[in-house]
């Protein structure tokens, strides 16, 4: 990795690129890395803002590990944080993938082909995800599926 001003510039560029992409968890990681780099020599306000943004994104993506790292970094800077959110309903890796594909606008048939499942299996999985997340249907599920990242559950 490149350190110093050059490393900070590269991290800023990564954040700028990822802000235009649907990869929210990667953006959270880049924001966290930038915040840590800034803490070694940047302005305190920018460091806090960057780490808070990383924390918010990590929590939104369900990344407990990254959120914990961001919390510890912010606490080390003297920032008082709200309590962590309650754990989100957990989905299996396949359910997360279905959620991502629904969020990307794919049909059941396209999802089935991508995951090597039958369209009926996809319908069952979508129904399970809808119930687990407590959403009202596919449209709301699609909104939730944009920018998701898998959490761990067997």
Structure, explained:
This protein is mainly alpha-helical and 154 residues long. The chain is built from 8 helices and no strands. It folds into 2 domains: 4-76, Serine Threonine Protein Phosphatase 5, Tetratricopeptide repeat; 93-145, Winged helix-like DNA-binding domain superfamily/Winged helix DNA-binding domain (Arc Repressor Mutant, subunit A). It has helices at residues 4-19, 24-39, 44-61, 64-76, 93-103, 108-115, 119-133, 138-145. The chain is elongated and about 55 Å long.
- Element pattern in H and E: HHHHHHHH
Helix run count: 8
Q: Could you estimate the helical fraction of the residues in percent?
A: 55-70%
Question: Which structural class should the secondary elements be placed in?
Answer: mainly alpha
Described by the principal axes of the CA atoms, the overall outline is elongated
Any idea how many domains?
2
Secondary structure elements and pairings:
Elements: H1 4-19, H2 24-39, H3 44-61, H4 64-76, H5 93-103, H6 108-115, H7 119-133, H8 138-145
Helix pairs in contact: 1-2, 2-3, 2-4, 3-4, 5-7, 5-8, 6-7
Which features would summarize this protein structure in a list?
single chain; 154 residues; mainly alpha; Arc Repressor Mutant, subunit A; 2 domains; disordered C terminus
């Amino acid at each position: 990795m490149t350190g110093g001003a050059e490393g900070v510039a590269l991290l800023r560029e990564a954040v700028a690129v990822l802000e235009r992409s649907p990869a929210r968890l990667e953006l959270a990681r880049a924001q966290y890395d930038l915040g840590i780099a800034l803490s070694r020599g940047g302005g305190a306000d920018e460091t806090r803002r960057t780490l808070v943004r990383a924390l918010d994104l990590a929590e939104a993506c369900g990344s407990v590990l990254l959120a914990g790292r961001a919390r510890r970094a912010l606490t080390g800077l003297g920032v008082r944080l709200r309590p962590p959110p309650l754990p989100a309903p957990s989905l299996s890796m396949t359910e997360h993938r279905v959620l991502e594909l629904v969020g990307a606008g794919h049909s059941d048939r396209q999802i089935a082909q991508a995951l090597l499942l039958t369209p009926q299996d996809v319908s069952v999985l979508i129904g399970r995800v809808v119930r687990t997340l407590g959403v009202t249907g596919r449209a709301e599920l699609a909104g939730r599926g944009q920018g998701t990242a898998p959490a761990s559950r067997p």
